[in-house]
Amino acid sequence: MARILLTNSEATPGVGKAAEMLAAGAGGLDAIEAGIRLVEADTSIRTVGRGGWANLLGEVELDAAMIDGNSFRSGAVGAVKGFLHPISIARAVLERLPHELLVGEGAARFATEIGAETTNNLIEDSERVWREWFEQKVPAADQEKWPDVPLAELCRQAIDPEKGMDTTVFLSLDSSEEIMAGVSTSGWAWKYPGRLGDSPIIGAGCYADSRHGAAACTGAGEMAIRAGSSRAIVLYMKMGLSLEAAMDEAIDDLRQLRGGLLQRITLHAIDRAGRHRVVALNAEKQLTYWLWREGDEAPHAEPAEIISL
Ligand code: ASP
After folding, report:
1. Is the CB of 61 within 6 Å of ligand 1?
2. What is the position in ligand 1's atom list of the atom closest to the CA of 217?
3. 240-264 pLDDT, tens per residue?
4. What angle do CA 40, 44, 47 make, to 5 degrees?
5. What pLDDT, in 10s, does the model give residues 260-300?
6. Is 167 a catalytic residue?
7. What angle do CA 171, 180, 206 make, to 5 degrees?
8. Rounded to two decimals, what is the model's pTM?
9. How close are the terminal C-alpha atoms of the chain, in Å?
């Protein structure tokens, strides 16, 4: 069975390292964690880790998750502040706790307990852009009372998906024929504090089953949560559909959503035979992804399919 690594374009700083590790026989979780750590630390990637956009209060809250497609053990963290590598905290949840998801203060407490590296994730440019938004969009009376003001209306007005939303997603089939997935994100620019997207919700933002395949989503996490998109793709494969048809079914599920936030969402999947597919729904521009297959010298970029919902 041929090894494979599928990531999205945000993975650029880490995809090469993850592919090298898989080529050398590393397990999927190790390769994915190493690759995502490089993305999280790279401040030119504005939607993952350090350098990510802030929430409405000007704070960077990070989400990450991993899933082991053999044991179905997962580890996820949500709304974590002040740590450089949420993916490694998620991995530690998977390996050291009888839980699958930690959020906020509890996640920070656990991160401290395991000695996770701390950092200020709000880089100067993100702070400047947040401050400009604050000065231009927040009414003067609210600026005076800040942060003790209602945020719901600001949240509704501030959604600007193509400016500040993305995630890095990694899916792998390794030399032991095991299928793994990992994701990391800062979510949406100007999100309501405490908002979790799909990334830390196993089955929404990512899912893996070594018997069938893996899937992960980027874009409007609210949609992937509502349709359970990553789990749905893998489950449709389990029910006997091809990768292609399984994704078509998951797309059909997304088409049934009514109301709420309906924006761009991109679905990524691999199967046990080493096939892959990446479909961007409602994308306004061409998106690419990275693919590495056993025997390739390095990952190469390919264009995603674009479909309207
Ligand atoms: N899916 C992520 C979230 O909703 C953001 C993104 O990938 O654009 O948090």
Report:
1. no
2. 1
3. 999 999 999 999 999 999 999 998 9
4. 55
5. 999 899 999 999 999 999 999 989 888 999 999 999 999 99
6. yes
7. 65
8. 0.97
9. 34
